[in-house]
């Protein structure tokens, strides 16, 4: 309870996390209602999926836009659940601007990793971005070992564990492991850089 109270005192309202989650759901619904099934790579490309021959020829925005596209409802549900759980904590500790930087940075790093692993495959999904949030949680937990009201307690990490387990298993099953691990590394490094003192003072 002291941890929850300190988070609410630090950032009263979480804005970026629900906005990103809502955007993912909206894009999925719009894409599902549009002509062409989401199982078709051409449909996902039309909505901004990451694809080497297009991304490396000037359409670099696909590195980030691909995170809002999901090929199935189950994948969307797992990613949104992980985003809402982990994102709410990270946003409250780091602040909204730093949270967005971590999210976008991890997404871009995952997009580059995906292209490196499979340049001519169509990549989509928020695995890299969510991996970045888990990396941020890890970094903030390490930074908080000095103990403060905003140090992330192990009980809170345990509460996140079931959804985190589902996320990593689904990423492995979907072949998103490279992007998720790249996002994890990028999220950790960005959080160490932007939030070294975030658990003790304003970042």
Strands, helices and their partners?
Elements: H1 2-10, H2 16-33, H3 41-46, E1 50-51, H4 52-55, H5 62-65, H6 73-94, H7 96-117, E2 122-123, H8 127-143, H9 154-174, H10 177-194
Antiparallel strand pairs: 1-2
Helix pairs in contact: 2-6, 6-7, 6-8, 6-9, 7-8, 7-10, 8-10
Please give the count of helices. 10
Residues in β-strands, percent: under 5%
Provide the residue-averaged pLDDT: 87
The largest sheet, given as strand count, sense and whether it forms a barrel, is: 2 strands, antiparallel
How would you describe this structure to a colleague?
- With 203 residues, this protein is mainly alpha-helical.
- It is built from ten helices and two strands, in the order αααβααααβααα.
- It has helices at residues 2-10, 16-33, 41-46, 52-55, 62-65, 73-94, 96-117, 127-143, 154-174, 177-194, and strands spanning 50-51, 122-123.
- A two-stranded antiparallel ribbon has the order 1-2.
- Helix 6 packs across helix 7, helix 7 crosses helix 8 and helix 8 packs parallel to helix 10.
- The longest helix has 22 residues, at 73-94.
- It is globular, with a radius of gyration of 17 Å.
- The mean pLDDT is 87.
List the main descriptive attributes of the protein structure presented here.
203 residues, mainly alpha, two-stranded antiparallel ribbon, globular
Tell me briefly what this model is:
69% of the residues lie in helices and 2% in strands.
């Amino acid at each position: 309870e002291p941890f929850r109270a300190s988070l609410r005192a630090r950032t009263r309202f979480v804005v970026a996390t629900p906005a990103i989650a809502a955007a993912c759901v909206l894009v999925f619904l719009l894409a599902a209602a549009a002509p062409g099934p989401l199982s078709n790579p051409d449909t996902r490309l039309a909505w901004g999926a990451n694809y080497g021959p297009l991304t490396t020829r000037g359409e670099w925005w696909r590195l980030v836009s691909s995170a809002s596209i999901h090929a199935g409802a189950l994948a969307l549900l797992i990613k949104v659940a992980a985003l809402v759980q982990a994102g709410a904590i990270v946003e409250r500790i780091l602040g909204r601007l730093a949270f967005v930087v971590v999210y976008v940075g991890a997404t871009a790093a995952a997009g580059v990793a995906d292209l490196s692993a499979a340049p001519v495959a169509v990549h989509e999904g928020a695995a890299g971005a969510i991996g970045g949030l888990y990396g941020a949680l890890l970094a903030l937990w390490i930074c908080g070992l000095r103990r403060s009201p905003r140090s992330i307690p192990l009980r809170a990490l345990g509460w996140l564990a079931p959804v985190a387990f589902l996320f990593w298993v689904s990423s492995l099953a979907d072949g998103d492991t490279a992007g998720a691990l790249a996002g994890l590394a990028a999220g950790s490094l960005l959080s160490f850089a932007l939030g070294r003192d975030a658990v003790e003072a304003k970042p």
